[in-house]
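User: Show me a protein chain along with its predicted structure.
Assistant: Here is one chain, sequence first, then structure tokens.
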Amino acid sequence: MREISYRKFSWNTHKRNWTLKRPNVCQFELTFRCGLHCRHCYTDCYNKVSYIKRELKTDQVKFILDKIYRAGCLWLCFTGGDPLTRKDFLDIYSYAKDKGFIITIFTNGYSMTKEIANYLKRRPPFVIELTLNAVGEQLYEKISQVKGSFKKTMQGIDLILKARLPLKIKTQITKDNLVEFVKLKKFIKGLGLKFRPSVDLHARLDGDLTPCNLRISPEEVLNLDGRVNPDCPNEPDRLDRNQKPHTSHFTPNTQLFQCAVGGGDGINLDPYGNTFLCNLIRKPKLNLLKVDVEYAQSKLLPLVRDKKFTTDSKCKDCKLREFCWWCPGKAYVETKDKESPISYYCKLTRTISKPLYA
């Protein structure tokens, strides 16, 4: 059998599905439950018994996985909350693995156990992406708001490393842990892993602005010298600092959504089986227990494709919009208006782009 690189396989598969108008990836929030209550978390507002008890049962998750598989999805991300907190996680994971999904697991490591690590060692995921926001116990537990969580999380990381599972560690930089930026970098690189910090925060899904209050200043972002998450297309290290903004012969882009939300490439699912187009704009939604993926996308995609600004929002004609981290989703959860500017992003974009005019 002829072997090809993963890169080539991925590109060929995506290209084929685009031609067939089939989705490639699915991000499935298996639960909003999490052992931590991080101060900046945008889903912690639903990390409550009243919401968790309404979540999908095991057979319902499998039913939806069948639909996703038939729709053509190959890449599957289990996220939350923390998906490892589900008692049936390994049952669900095994079912998805048997179907042939390429699986990514998002976790904080707090709920990693020997049983889970040993099983994943035998049947490894494509990658585990783990969030670590401090390497000091006191600071970690200030952020997580759970006593004893630092030791348990570090044990979880140790289990993953001993099982030799593919691991990426991410860090969310906030006012809380900016002081540990260098320590975090040294610790993560000491594990032989790439340091992957991000500085972008947005409001919680219920509109709670607590995470927004933890944003570091634009000047502090700039002082990080572009050392932010290279996997996030809107963050400053993607900016070519030898290229000035295209302010000459500027043509306004009145397209509201500049992301891939209307492309039909991905499926977003919450713990109740609802699918929606934007992770931050969760209405309208359709439930995959009741409808197929194809029907859901046929109803939802036209609502965002080629959608234009309907107001005189200053974002519409902004010459720096190509460098801005603002998006309709962030605007919606923070202001309840998808077209509303957010002053923090305006200041941040001017600060980041200022050196380009020099």
